[in-house]
Write a structure and sequence with these properties.
42% helix, alpha/beta, Rossmann fold, 8 strands, 283 residues, globular, 8-stranded mixed sheet
Length: 283
């Protein structure tokens, strides 16, 4: 059987304005798929070509391709290679790459590999390392990660409900908690556990110095998974970047507070994020 190309493998969907001169590519985070971007992407339909994709093993991506190439995805670089291959297949040039959570680091690695494909970067609730280190506060300890995996093993359904409530924070929108919990429930336990290990034990702090494109870091003011210190670390270690702390709660602001996310991205794109403003803090 022939392996699917990147368009089919990652369930790529094109929308927006086909006559637009610029393209935006959206990369989702753990436990969701491209539909998580629906409200944010819709705000850019008139002015941009929009590319939506599903990360390997997620949503409508080719599950058999993931199983055949599972070794490719033991690190985030395999997922980043997919994003690069999608860009090449579509003939992209100077696209805007938007990534949420782990999708943010996937997007970062893709932009480092091919800044000609992706010349602007938006990182939403992203982290280069989740584990605390000597002088670095990532928000998690090894004991905390061990406890998460134990909870998943003992009662996966109960864990997905709890994680969904934490992820949405104080959004006041129980239907969104149910939406995220359903997505988590649809992931087989073994796959969810192995993917979470890959994410939580990743460390891409040394890669940040290689980012060469204008970068916006968008951070909820209250995010259980990503402390504000992490967002500031990204700002301080990505040259030419700027940080926008938005009035949102939880780890999925593109779902719970899309207007705030859209406003931050539009401001970034309109201002062109000059490199002379490296380290600017908007909030």
């Amino acid at each position: 059987m022939n392996s699917p190309g990147p368009i089919g493998r990652n369930n790529v969907n094109l929308c927006g304005n086909p006559r637009a001169g610029e393209t935006m590519v959206f990369v989702h985070g753990f436990g969701t798929d491209q539909t998580a971007w629906s409200d944010v992407a819709a705000a850019f339909h008139a002015g941009y070509k929009i590319v939506l994709l599903d990360n390997a093993s997620c949503g409508g991506s080719d599950q058999q391709a993931f199983e055949r190439n599972s070794n490719r995805y033991v690190t985030l670089r395999g997922y980043a290679a997919d994003v690069v291959e999608v860009g090449v297949a579509l003939g992209l040039k100077d696209a805007i790459l938007v990534g949420h959570s782990v999708g943010g680091m996937i997007a970062t690695l893709a932009s480092i590999e091919r800044p000609d494909l992706y010349s602007k970067l938006v990182l939403l609730g992203a982290s280069p390392r989740y584990l605390n280190d000597l002088e670095y506060h990532g928000g998690f300890t090894q004991d905390m990660i061990g406890a998460i995996h134990l909870q998943m093993y003992r009662n996966y359904y109960g864990w997905t409900q709890s994680f969904a409530r934490q992820a949405l924070g104080d959004s006041g929108k129980p239907h969104l908690v149910e939406y995220y919990a359903r997505h988590l429930d649809s992931i087989p336990f073994t796959r969810a556990a192995s993917t979470l290990i890959t994410i939580l034990e990743s460390d891409h702090r040394k890669d940040l110095m290689h980012v060469s494109v204008p970068t916006l870091i968008v951070q909820s003011k209250d995010d259980f998974a990503i402390p504000l210190e992490v967002a500031r670390y990204l700002r301080d270690h990505i040259s030419g970047s700027r940080l926008s702390v938005i009035d949102a709660s939880g780890h999925l602001p593109h779902v719970s507070a899309p207007d705030a996310v859209v406003a931050a991205i539009k401001d970034f794109l309109e201002s062109a994020a000059p490199t002379s403003q490296a380290g600017k803090l908007d909030a």
